[in-house]
Structure to design on (315 residues):
C-alpha cells in the first residue's frame, strides 16, 4: 500500500521500553542471555511478543520513543540487530523501511500480522458521508486500514498466529507459548464481551474522531465512525467536511469529538466549539506514553470503552 499518511509516534510498553533502551546501545540484544530474540516493528506487535513469549523472550521495538512509525528509517545498527534476531513481528505495508529490511534479512521467522487476519478499507465511506471534498484524503484512503489491533477479535486472531509461529521457531518453549497465547486470547475475548455489552444500548451509535483509526472497532460493535481527517491524523479537513460533520452531529445526537493524546487537539476543539460539543480522548494505542490513560493495551482499551460509553449515552 503506497499510503502517504503519517501515524502517531509509538513507544514500547514498560517492559519493551527497558529492552529498547538496552538494545539501542547494544545490538546483540539476546546474544548472551540465551533468550529467544524477537524484534517488533512497533508497540502493538511488541505487546503481543511480550505477552506470548513471557520470560523466554527478549523483545525489542524498532520504533523508538518520539518516532513516527510510518516514517521510520531503520539505522545500520537496527538492520544488524534485525539480522541477528530469532524472529521479527511486524505489520506489512505500514512501515516501508521495515518491510525492506525484513525482506533483505536472512531471519528465519518472519511474522507478518497482516497475513494473520483480514484487512479492509475504511474511512472513505464512513457513515455514508464520503470524504469527497478532500482529494488528499481520498488518495490516502485507497489503502487498507492497518488498525487491526483496535478490534479485540482481530487482535486475538493475530495473537494466535504469532503464538503458533513462535512455537514452531522455538520448540523448546512451545508449551509455554501455547499456554500464554491461550491466556492472552481469553483476555481479548473477555474484552470483546465487555465492549459488546457496554455498547449494546446507547442513545446514539455515531462518534466523531480526528483520525479514522477506529473503523474495525466501530464495525465490530455496530457503531459509525465519522472521521475529521480520514486516516491521516495530521491533515486539515476541508471547510465542507467540517460543515458536514456539524450537520451530522445535530442529526445523530453526537455529543463528543474525540482526539488523540499524541496529536494536537486544535481541530477537535474548533469543531466541538462551533457545534456546541464536548471533546475527549479516544486512544488508537499506537504507543504507550505518560499521557496514555493506562499502562498497556488492555488498560487503555478499558479507558476507550469508558469514553465511548459516556459519549454515546450508554444505558
Amino acid at each position: 500500500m503506497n499510503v502517504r499518511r503519517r501515524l502517531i509516534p509509538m513507544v514500547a510498553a514498560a517492559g519493551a521500553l527497558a529492552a529498547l533502551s538496552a538494545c539501542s546501545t547494544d545490538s546483540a540484544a539476546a546474544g548472551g542471555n540465551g533468550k529467544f530474540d524477537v524484534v517488533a516493528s512497533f508497540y502493538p506487535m511488541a505487546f503481543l511478543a511480550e505477552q506470548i513469549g513471557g520470560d523466554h523472550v527478549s523483545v525489542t521495538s524498532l520504533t523508538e520513543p518520539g518516532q513516527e512509525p510510518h516514517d521510520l528509517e531503520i539505522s545500520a545498527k537496527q538492520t544488524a540487530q534485525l539480522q541477528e534476531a530469532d524472529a521479527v513481528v511486524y505489520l506489512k505495508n505500514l512501515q516501508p523501511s521495515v518491510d525492506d529490511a525484513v525482506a533483505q534479512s536472512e531471519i528465519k521467522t518472519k511474522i507478518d500480522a497482516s497475513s494473520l487476519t483480514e484487512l479492509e478499507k475504511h474511512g472513505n465511506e464512513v457513515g455514508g458521508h464520503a470524504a469527497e471534498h478532500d482529494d488528499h484524503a481520498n488518495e490516502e484512503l485507497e489503502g487498507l486500514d492497518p488498525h487491526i489491533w483496535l478490534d479485540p477479535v482481530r487482535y486475538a486472531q493475530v495473537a494466535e498466529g504469532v503464538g503458533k509461529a513462535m512455537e514452531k521457531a522455538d520448540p523448546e518453549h512451545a508449551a509455554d507459548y501455547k499456554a500464554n497465547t491461550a491466556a492472552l486470547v481469553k483476555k481479548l475475548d473477555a474484552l470483546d464481551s465487555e465492549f459488546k455489552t457496554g455498547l449494546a444500548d446507547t442513545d446514539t451509535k455515531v462518534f466523531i474522531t480526528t483520525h479514522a483509526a477506529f473503523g474495525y472497532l466501530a464495525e465490530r460493535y455496530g457503531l459509525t465512525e465519522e472521521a475529521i481527517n480520514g486516516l491521516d491524523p495530521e491533515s486539515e479537513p476541508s471547510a465542507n467536511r467540517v460543515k458536514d460533520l456539524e450537520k451530522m452531529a445535530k442529526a445523530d445526537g453526537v455529543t463528543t469529538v474525540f482526539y488523540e493524546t499524541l496529536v494536537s487537539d486544535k481541530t477537535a476543539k474548533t469543531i466541538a466549539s462551533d457545534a456546541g460539543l464536548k471533546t475527549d480522548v479516544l486512544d488508537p494505542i499506537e504507543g504507550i506514553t505518560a499521557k496514555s490513560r493506562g499502562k498497556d493495551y488492555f488498560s487503555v482499551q478499558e479507558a476507550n470503552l469508558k469514553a465511548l460509553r459516556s459519549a454515546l449515552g450508554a444505558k
